[in-house]
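Sample entry (287 residues):
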Amino acid sequence: MKRFVLRYHFFVLGCIGFILNSCNSRFRVWVGTNNEQKIYNLKYGEHKRQKMDVFLPSDYPENSPVVLIVHGGAWKYGRKEHMIHIQKMLFKNNIPSINMNYRLVSKKITYKQQLEDIGAVIEKFNSLAQKAELQPNNYILLGESAGGHLALLYGYQHADQIKKIISLSAPTDFFSKEYLDSFYSKYTSPTIQKVVGTKFNRKNLSEEFQKASPIANISYIPTLLFQGNKDFLVNQRQGLSLDSALAQQNVPHKLVFMEGAGHAPRFFSKRRRDSIIYPNILDWIKK
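Predicted structure, serialized as tokens:
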């Protein structure tokens, strides 16, 4: 207990530097009866969206990975509070976690700046990791939908920081012939064009769409995929194609393919979350 009280004291002191220059009244710290803590709206940058919630349970091993949660919302909507149910589940299972907001797609913001935000969160928490008695660069990325796309892409590009990836209903492919020939590409290409920040010319597609596709950026990061066969926002072929590509490259992975399931965990039934999604997430983190 003494060890954790010291951990709490120094971790909060380490956070003070991030809030002295902030007038955000919503920053708050909750401490439980066993000295577990929840820190809300900790700044990791100057933009109003660059805030994160840090949940630290009462006890965890120093080598415990920190799960970094990335919300969905078609890259231009959504907020971290949409993922609070997963963060609470991790907290109950003694797993440290960060739940982040990021800048949303606009004329000046593309997926590249959103990836930079993930990097900024990691940089900030690395500077506090020792105070929380955790190791730096020991993260599991967990994202839903657009957040799953960002988690996959960032994770595959930063093997020195990311140990595992968990992706729920994520788009994975914006460039292949299979995607271009599909009806799915017809109604998603206007959004993808804004995300990539380059005109989507089907007959002469820029290589930027390949660079933005997780399936074209695979590296040796163990990956857990969730995909529903009745997902009308992200076609099931997106998950199935990445599963095949990971198998071909001998990357440790698992596809949880759910019959009768739609899009994103917060739209799945409570029964499916409790019996399929959460057990698989916990097993992937702990294995």
